[in-house]
Amino acid sequence: MTQAKYLEVAKIITDRIDNGTYKTRQPLPDQETLAKELGVSRLTVKKALDGLERQGRVYKQSGLGTFVSSDIPIKDKKDSPANVFSGLKNQLKSDNVRSKVLSFSVEFPDEQMQKNLELKKTEPVYNIVRLRIVDDQPLIIEHTYMPVKLVPDLDEDILHDSIYNYLHHKLKLKFGHAYRKIRAAKSNHYDQKYLNAAQDDPMLELEQIVWLSNGQPIEYSESRNRYDQRTYTILENNRF
After folding, report:
1. Mean local confidence (pLDDT), 111-140
2. What is the average pLDDT across 7-14?
3. What predicted TM-score, i.e. pTM, was given to this entire model?
4. Strands annotated E in 14-86
C-alpha cells in the first residue's frame, strides 16, 4: 500500500467491480472483512467506500451494507464529479497528468483574498497559475491562492507534480469541506493561448474555497476549461 491507502483500497474494489468479482446490486463484503483481507484499518475501508459512493460506483443501505451500483449509461470520460476534491491525478487515476507552471509568486493578499482565506493583509499568499496537461493535451488552467503559513516550502518541483499530495502526505493536512460555484464564461487571453480556445468559445469556470478539517480555509482557486473538454456531474444519494 502507498501512503494514500484509501485510494489503493478504492482501486482494488473498483477493479473487482469492473471484472465482475462484485456484481451489480449485490452487497460488498462488510468493512471489517475487507479491512482484514487488505491489511488496513476499518476507517481506511470506510473512507474508500465513501469516495466510491460519491462517484456512483456503490450505494449504501442502512442496516444492510454497501452494494454495487448499476452503470450510469450517460457517463462520459470527460465527466468530473463536482463534489470531489482529491486532485486531478487522483480523479483521473492517471499518471499521464503534467503541470506547466505559468506563474508562481508570493504576495500580500488584497481585500477579497483576505476575506476568502481569512487572512490579515500582512500574511502572504502563494499566487499560482498552472496549465494541467492530460495525455499531452492541454485541459485546465488553474489559478490558485494558498496561505504561506499553512503551506510552507511550496516550490516549483511540487507545482509540477501534485499540490494535494504534498498537502496530504508531506504536511499531513486533512480537508474538511469545500464551496464550489460552476459558471459559464467567455474565453480570455490565457484560454486562447494555452487551451486553444477560439475567441467565441464558451468556457466552464469552477470557483472554489477549500477548508481544512479544523475550519481554516487553505485554498481559493478558479479553474477553467473549454466547454468541450470537461464536464461536471453530481450524483444524488438519497437514503430513506
Report:
1. 95
2. 92
3. 0.73
4. 58-61, 65-68, 79-81
